[in-house]
Amino acid sequence: MGNLSANNIAITFHDIHSRDWLRRTLQAIASRYDFVSIDEVSNFYHSGKTLKNTCHITFDDGHKTFYENSFPVLKELGIPASIYVSPLIIIEEKNFWFQEIAGIEENHFKQELALFLQLEEASLARFSIYAILKSLPVDDIHAVIDQYFTKYNRKRLPPQNMNTDQLIEVDRSGLIKIGAHTMNHPILKNETDERAYDEVKASIDGLARLLGKKTAYFAFPNGIPLLDFGPREQKILADCDVSLSFSMEKKRYSQADHHLAVPRNALERGGPNLVKLKLLLGKSWYQLKNRLTPANEISQRIHFQALYSTNRTTAQP
Ligand SMILES: [Zn+2]
Known about the structure:
Elements: H1 2-5, E1 9-13, H2 19-30, E2 34-35, H3 38-46, E3 54-60, H4 64-77, E4 81-85, H5 87-92, H6 97-100, H7 106-117, H8 129-133, H9 138-151, H10 164-172, E5 176-180, H11 193-211, E6 217-219, H12 231-239, E7 244-246, H13 272-281, H14 283-289, H15 295-315
Parallel strand pairs: 1-3, 2-3, 3-4, 4-5, 6-7
Helix pairs in contact: 11-12, 13-14
The structure holds zinc ion.
Zinc ion (ZN) binds at residues 60-61, 181, 185, 221.
């Protein structure tokens, strides 16, 4: 019962295509939880503030539907939230690598991946393209995507994310706090020490230039502990004066967590309140749940990394 009395959750959203859906979801959550701002969550970790039955809402990546759909609903309901964006993507009005390949023909793209990685196409059959790409440094991800788009003369998608003016307006609202999310959305663990540091530092400095103030908040790209980030990345954040960072570990947050790996996406864990919430959310619950990284992808990544590293080792004289 002790756990229940300190039942606090953080939820991640990405792109939201229906204001109604978000309004209904937030109202259902509001019937069980009090919404708190990121500053309150930070005080919970750093100043011992007591939180009970609270929910903090986050949005990752800065998709343009945040400005178009989510921001108006949050303002209407007076719900504080934090969002995690890349200043590079915002300023240059570019897409993240995973947005570039949305809707791509997977098997066709896999042929290119096999060429790029010098692996047999058949050996990639059991892996999703995301499991493969999330095992590579981000420069390689960009290189193979560029190679594919150039070779087949594919059209790029228009910019999917907020622009500078929109981000500044969101910041000025005071309701939404903006945190960093790297520049290029790498899986930080796949990068060299230097590149991992640069991705973090440049995103914090870039946001400071854009917004005229330095953020103390960060969300790890993809965010799975040990697979996407580890102690090295937490040390980088500490060196960059980040005071709170989110992972995608799916459990309630509590003072037992490291403040640079605060869990999010608690909704699918058991517990009477959460069961009621699931019933309350109905169809919305399943839509929310579908946004979580499939467990299958995690095991595919581990298997692909083993295959790829073996192959590289044996390929070298
Ligand atoms: Zn992200």
